[in-house]
Every structure is written in C-alpha cells, then in structure tokens.
Specification:
single chain; about 350 residues; mainly beta; Glucose Permease (Domain IIA); six-stranded mixed β-sheet; 22 strands; about 10% helix; globular; binds zinc ion
Amino acid sequence: MRHAMRHPTNRRLFFRCAGAAAGTVIASAFSSPAAPGGVGAPAAGKKTGADSSAKKTRVLERTSKATLTPFGLNHGGTLRFILRDGRVWEMTLLATSAEVIRRHSAIRPRPDPNHESGDIAAYAFDCDVRINGTAHHLRREVGTQASFYEPWEVDGVRLWFDAVSCAFKEDGGFMAEKDWRGGLLCKPSHKARFAVQESDLPICPESLQPWYPNNAGRIDIRDCYNGEDCWMGPYNGAAAHCGLDINMKAGTVLTAPISFDDHYLFNSVAAGFNNNRWRGVRRWPDGSEWWLQSHHLIRMLVPERTALAAGTPYATTAGVMVGAHEHTHFVFRIHEQGGDYFLDPWILFWEIFRGQRKKAA
Ligand SMILES: [Zn+2]
C-alpha cells in the first residue's frame, strides 16, 4: 500500500514541498480538483491546462478482459472499470506533476545534431487519483532502480502508472523525446497513461516465456544502456528513451515471449535501413492487438511473415547499431478500443519474472 493522501485541500502545498525538498523545478499541471464524490467540472473561469483537456472524454468505460487494459485520462477524467463479478471500480485523475530528482555534475556533450543533451540523471512523476472514493497519491521514478516498479493494487485491481505528459517539454516539462524520428513517442496523449488488470489475472491469458536469457529474474538499471535507457529514461541527460534497453552480448538469442500471429522486420539493414528492427503482432480474442518489438537484431533464425509459437528462438541480437554497449531495445505497444498506447516493456518482464518465480516455487 502506498501513501494515500487524505487531505485533498493540501494537494498544492504537498507538491510544492516535495519539489522544494528535491531542489529542482516542478513542471506541474494542476487541475481544479473535481468535487468530492463525483466527477466535477473544473471551477469556472480558471485557466489551467486541465480546463481544455478535461472537455474531452470525461468518463471512459472499460470492461475487464483477459488482457491488460491501457488507458489515458485527463484531469477530472474517470475510468469506470467493470470487473468480472459486475462490480464497478472507478478512478478519477485529479492532478499530475513531474520533477527532476537527480542531476549529473555537468551537461552531457551533445552526441550528434539529432539528439539533445542535458544534465538530468533521474526524474519522478506523481499523480493524485481518487479510487472508489478514496484518495491515493502515486509516485514513480525513472532512471533509478525504482524504474522497475511493482504495480499498485487497490480494491482487487492492479494499477500501472505509466507516464504523465507534464514531464515532457511539449506540456511544460523538462524531457525531450529521443526516438520521435523513428515514430516512437513516450509522451502520453492524455495527462496520464495507466494500465489496469484484475489482481487475480495475469496481463494476458498465456504464460509468458523468457524473451532473452535472464536467470536473475530482475533488471538492473546499470544494464540499461549508460544506466539511463529504461522506459522513458533520460538519454544523454535530456531525452526520453522510447523503449527499454537491456545490455547483452552480441549474438544473444531472443525467444518469443508469447505466441504471435505474424512477425517481421519492419526496418532491415538489407533493405537499406540503419538497423534491424523486428515486430511480433498478436491479436487476442478480446480485440486487443499487441506489438512487441526488439531492435538491433543480427539475424533472423526463422522465416518472417508466419505465426510464431511462444518459446521459439527467433533471432540473434545486440549486434547492429548498438553504440557504446551491445544491447537490445524492447518496445511494448497496444492497439485497442480506439487507442494506440506505448507502455513500459517492464510490464512484460515483470510478468515473465513472476511466472519464473511461480514455476520455481
Ligand atoms: Zn534503445
């Protein structure tokens, strides 16, 4: 159980204190909190970022299903999540904020004209939510070991707090996007991005197999390219890394963590691209379509454009365009119910490691 803030009127003060303690700038976007017990409209006449964003979908209804449900909320927006037993689990987003929590001693040299440089070593982001009438304060870190977090569990639902938009320069924050040129964007379309699943269900109805050899059952932040390229990690002190990099030896074999309906290289060196980037596509019976990607591959071990069974070795990796450390770049993307959601690939590894621990027990 995390810190649950029970004094909504002190919200603003609480955040200021948190920011002051860290000695860094808070990039915040506070909403006018909704009226207690309901989804209230922001106070009239107030000009905040929340006012315009909150005019969009205010109540999003989702029904519990066999796969994880990603969603975005603006300030004042509510998710009504209907559980298998008919119970309604309801969460309203009240406020979001983000702050730098650690800086390098100097601004990093600019690696090339295409990439920003800065001194951000780690940052945190927060939100205030009301779940089934109770206030909760959620806080995440990016760029530290705590990047590999446990989801919250509230009233029978597991909650992943993936991102806030106000961490990004485009919404008043401090992070640039590193991989937008390749079509990868970390910044959520809403003020915050989450995913939920009922606590007694795995993230999908198939037990996940290892994606790469990892006997430790954990990821060390130091193994994430320069110790910074976890999901949304501060690449070169400045730009959110849109994927999860894990250092591994060139030639490491990747195996399919789930079964795929289709898989292929969408960028290949053979076709004149700068990298071998692979995508596996899975359409679940509940309508959700998952894209799992691995980049920096050396060679495919199986024919493309076929189905691929879970556990099948499909490629050698960590050998093309790897920069300073041999590594693989993992991406997790879900298309469903009118949304396109990038999510932290850590969620997949969390489930893989959980399965391994269960098997071992
Ligand atoms: Zn990467």
